[in-house]
Amino acid sequence: MEANGSYFNEGGGQDGPFDRLREECGVFGVFGYEDAASLTYYGLHTLQHRGEESAGICTSDGHTFRYHRGMGLVKEVFDKDRLASLEGDRAIGHVRYSTSGDSRLANAQPLVFKTRDGDLAVATNGNIVNAPMLRRELEQKGSIFQTTSDTEVIAHLIARSESDFVTAAKDALRQLVGGFAFLILTNDKLLVASDTYGLRPIVMGRLGDAWVFSSESCALDTIGADFVRAVEPGEMLVFDAMGYRSERFAPVAKRALCSMEFIYFSRPDSQLYDVNLHTARKRMGMRLAEEFPVEADLVSGVPDSSISAAIGYAEKAGIPYEMGMIKNKYSGRTFIQPSQELREQGVKMKLSAVRSVVEGKRVVLIDDSIVRGTTSRRIVKMLRDAGAKEVHLRIASPPFKNPCFYGIDTPTSDDLIASTHTVEQICEMTGADSLAFLSQPGMIEAIGGAFTKEASGGLCLACFDKEYPTPIGVSANMTSCGC
Question: What is the pLDDT of residue 455?
């Protein structure tokens, strides 16, 4: 089945007036479930927040691959008839964001290949830092790339190997530098792998006799699967007719799970290792109230990702939590290019201040992060226009100063406001009465979990302190997204 896509969404970059960070993608896999495509559909629908630009599913019945990819939301790409045509008891699926210029159907996943040993499909979440170097080496050896996606690199590495499939996959994974979670499907096997640092999350669940895999545990809850465990750094799971086995393609280098998963990306009902996201974010808000208290009449959070932290701040500070801002749930994607005048007003299409709540009040506004600062400036102005007497901005993470190379669409350092301005300067630029960021030790302690004895808390903190867990060379993939 061809990936039919005459659609082209210009996409990429940041959405209108908003400067929110973008997680690049989400993956979902099934092994041993009669209607694997439908199960994958529901899993991807739950992971939609991780990628709204394209979606795809590839299935196998043990003999034949069937797949479909398209631009748009999961519900736009798939319907009942399309899902019914994707027969098979095993599947891998993907939802994707892209960086500017790469929003096209050819890069939608899963990527599907014909090799001398049969069909091969690959879906990944993350970014391969050394992909440019590997790509050049492969091209010099005769490989012809069909996409601009880094994910294609591993397919070529596997296809060129003279070893058996599992050994070839392990050898290929060992050559990759970066943060990634891979689902690799053949007609008789499904491989699940996590990078040696565990930068990009992937979890494993059980539904009856079937096995399921997801970028977040919330998707397991949606389909009624039981959470089993997270896939360990450097681990590769092999599923086939004999059952499954766990192998290692590399030892654990150093646990460095992306801290932005806790701060912003993952849904609050997800679980990362032994930490619930809502609980962690609430503790971040409580710690922020301890570190930077302020006299105020109410606490409000920027919906939706900052609500948990705002509740924690309000609880600790003894200040009422109020819904000072409302989010428009239906403003996320548009194929209509607005005029410049409307773009300037675009923040009002997504957020509205509740005048009756904030008018005449001293407001503590909680947000999860500041990227370029444009969104914060517009929100502060919105609250003042609604009559807020004071606006005190509190950020439930440290200053975001450095670009990410592991699967987050971030600007360069020059465009990250905290990289080039002091807290006082940012406060003045946003128009807030005061501004404070959660300290890095406070964030690590608030997240907690099984790895708090490590100085980093088992987290990647490079976006805050520039301590990248992997080597970052001049030839590193700067696009942020390997998928």
Answer: 80
